[in-house]
């Protein structure tokens, strides 16, 4: 089973604190943690700007 060392745990903790929406993926090969990926999603309110752009053409 893959185990995280203290440096890796700290990286995961800081990553989780820094994002509001997204994911943290820990990749394990041969029982060892080899990679940690952070994907952050930004969400914007739908302001219906497309309609105003169409009217200006």
TrEMBL record:
InterPro entries: DUF2292. This is YezD family protein. The lineage of its organism: Bacteria, Bacillati, Bacillota, Bacilli, Bacillales.
């Amino acid at each position: 089973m893959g185990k995280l060392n203290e440096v890796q745990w700290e990286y995961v903790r800081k990553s989780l604190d820094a994002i509001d929406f997204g994911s943290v993926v820990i990749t394990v090969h041969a029982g060892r943690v080899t990679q940690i990926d952070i994907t952050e999603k930004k969400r914007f309110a739908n302001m219906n700007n497309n309609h105003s752009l169409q009217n200006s053409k």
